């Protein structure tokens, strides 16, 4: 069999492996508050066809537009008919898309490095975990890689089409999340340093056709404006998208709930153990990325002797660019005090590419075929261990606080509480129109889980009229409820964990509860 | 079924005394409970029963949990003062020690299933087994049928937490098909799917939860739970089953 066919077969196997780790049981983990907010925001776009960008919160609209085709295909007609899987399928597709995009840079990284990067992308615990998380991060990583891939293809072919696609990806990055500017800064810096390093200013300038700049730039602006303006319906959107940076620069400056030390991300990736519990480490990728960095330092600008795809020599420039880009944004993300674990995806993905280069190069540094075989076997086993960690992160520990990527996550008590309220609605005379009042400072993701009920009200403090068949209150606000809520004859009250140390108290009218209990007992023991 | 006629008569006397005591103290709940318990203990002593002696670990935390709403919640208020004794026939002892334990979770996250009956009750690492999220159970095979008088369970008592859907059942067979009886059930919304329960939830402490087994005869004891207010996992530090050989 030809080598090319082997490569295609292996590539398909890697994609299948990536899907196998990402697709099953997408509803297994309770919706994070942010995921629930995004699902509800999507509902606004779905129902009205318009998305009004808020420069203070929620990020750009691409996530919601990307969800539309999935929801259409799902056959759901209302938010009540959607499921967690409907929404999480979006990041799954973009997460696997990161593997497919490697095709654009295969001749730049080299065949072995591309396959290795594909394997590491498919198996990386953090990439797998956040590929099942309905937030913007995986989309941003995808578009950033698309910019690099299309840019590389333009550099190789000088075809305007690639410049337009790169520009489109730049626009989509902007319309996905405000942190795109870190990636932009990283790309520009890495590009300038790479060209300077290789002393190819003149040839680089010659290769850059004015048309490419104009068309690429125009594509970026048009796409961003179109998406932020909700296809022309909200003309303020593009302006707000720029105004938002005032808010986000202030937030990035720190003094907030999410401030962490500069080494927070690197420690999380290198070794993490919240005792008592299992350890987590993606040190394999970090170490191999260092190897890839050494390749970038050593590699001749015109390519090394390793065979690339279709017999072409791999481009040292691309590896160097990726190394510099990764290093730049590692530093920026580490320096910014505001840190949430999902943000690390943006700098970790370039490190995965670099690790692919390292994995392909390291066995070659050994003398003798036996040593090379040993190193290759060790790397294979280590990658398998990475896959096992990914499975653990995505399934067994998907909502466990000892998983480093589980951050400010709700407990499954919120799912059970909502499930119970739905079962009560089936007993109540009003059915899905049963009135439910929720009193909580921060009730997310409860609105998502109560989406099938038609009459649910949310308050941050108890309203004047609280009484309802079902009243849900967080434990810190329960004492502010009227006296009627303390009598055992009036309400049946039960507790559910919302977050560690935050409990939901579900007050159910005594008559409704007794009817519920009667039916349950009849179903269990017979009438 | 009660084990012996004398003990049965004692239990009836106990119930009558408890009712009378309850009527006597009227509407002062805390005082009423204490008086009821004292009356029960007195009646039990008359019936030849003795207070079950328990070996408790050291408390791991002090104080009471924050934001416990008063009154109506389906949750026992943290108790002030010692636990009322469980009156049992003389010779009753822990028969679960070192007996084999099985579980719905074949691969515990932390620890081993044998920890459930190894006698180590301290709230520290290496003394408890942690099972995965959702409804999970552990089951103790007592190796022969016993007359059960009490089950004492410590889920986790390093910090204040409430475990959900706590059920204690006994049965004659390992598959829990024959003669299944429920000793305790606080699954008030039937989310575990084993029937609705009327017992209250409770805070796990160093004292453990002592459940009256009412003289049921059984060989197998199964305990269920469905995560806690702190996390979704299920923990067991120790389970003791107080019993006498079945006649």
Which fold does the CATH topology of the largest domain in chain B refer to? Jelly Rolls
Low-confidence regions of chain A: 301-314
Q: How big is the Rg of chain B?
A: 18 Å
* Strand-pairing-aware structural class of chain B: alpha+beta
Element order, helices and strands of chain A?
Answer: HHHHHHHHHHHHHHHHHHHEHEEEEH
Spatial separation of the terminal alpha carbons of chain A: 69 Å
**Rg over CA atoms of chain A:** 26 Å
Please state roughly what percent of the residues of chain A sit in beta strands, choosing from under 5%, 5-15%, 15-25%, 25-35%, 35-45% or over 45%: 5-15%
- What spatial order of strands do you see in the largest sheet of chain A? 2-1-3-5-4
How many β-strand stretches of chain B? 12
How many discrete structural domains of chain A?
A: 2
Summarize the amount of helix of chain A as a percent range: 55-70%
- Biggest chain contact: A-B, 42 and 35 residues
- Total strand segments of chain A: 5
Number of domains of chain B: 2
Low-confidence stretches of chain B: 1-29
Major beta sheet summary of chain B: 8 strands, antiparallel
What fraction, in percent, of the residue positions of chain B are helical? 10-25%
